[in-house]
Design goal:
The protein is 38% helix and 22% strand. With 186 residues, it is of the alpha/beta class. The chain has one domain (2-179): TIM Barrel, CATH 3.20.20. It has a seven-stranded parallel sheet with strand order 1-2-3-4-5-6-7. Strand 2 (30-37), helix 2 and strand 3 (56-60) form a beta-alpha-beta unit. InterPro entries: DNase_TatD-rel_CS, Metal_Hydrolase, TatD-like, TatD/YcfH-like.
């Protein structure tokens, strides 16, 4: 039995072949999946998938590249969604300095609000970090995210940073980026 803890079956790319993709996963012993909703549209689609398929679970949050669009109403909506019986984590949240779509200060605020919500409802968190490692780790420490822990998604940092994250009660997830020529994991 395999549990894929981070899928984006709610992406438009799967509109035409979703059933085939799910069938291939099941044929390869993937018996459970957690679909990640990271903004209003993808959260709504994730909810549809979790309601339709008994083996699909939810990770819902607000991605840092969409932080500029996050409102207090969205935070309340997320708070209500944490009660969904298939909700397993909040995320993917964090900081992204690669894409210039949300100012850093806005990303900081949205990240902190989601960590606080996770602690309030006692759910682990899934962290997105792109070119923002120092600030991500600092905020995790300042917000005492170790109280809920979670996963450092698509990790590509140094062993020292990995050890810091492990000490903060986070699992390490290695994604496809570790195969990129530019990846300098040391």
């Amino acid at each position: 039995m395999l549990f894929d803890t981070h899928v984006h079956l709610n992406d438009e790319a799967f509109r035409d072949d979703l059933e085939e993709v799910i069938l291939r996963a099941k044929e390869n012993d993937v018996s459970k999946m957690a679909v990640v909703g990271f903004n209003k549209e993808t959260i709504e689609r994730a909810l549809e998938l979790a309601d339709k398929y008994d083996f699909i679970y939810l990770i819902l949050g607000w991605h840092p590249t969409d932080a500029i669009d996050f409102t207090d109403q969205d935070l309340e909506w997320l708070r209500k969604l944490t009660k969904h019986p298939k909700m397993v984590a909040l995320g993917e949240m964090g900081l992204d300095y690669h894409w210039d779509t949300s100012p850093k200060e806005v990303q900081f605020e949205v990240f902190r609000k989601q960590i606080r919500l996770a602690k309030e409802v006692n759910l682990p968190i899934v962290i997105h970090n792109r070119e923002a490692t120092e600030d991500v780790v600092r905020i995790l420490r300042e917000e005492h995210a170790e109280e809920v822990g979670g996963i450092m998604h698509c990790f590509g940092e140094t062993v020292e940073v990995m050890e810091e994250c492990l000490a903060l009660n986070f699992y390490i997830s290695f994604g496809g980026t570790v195969t990129f020529k530019k990846c300098e994991i040391t």
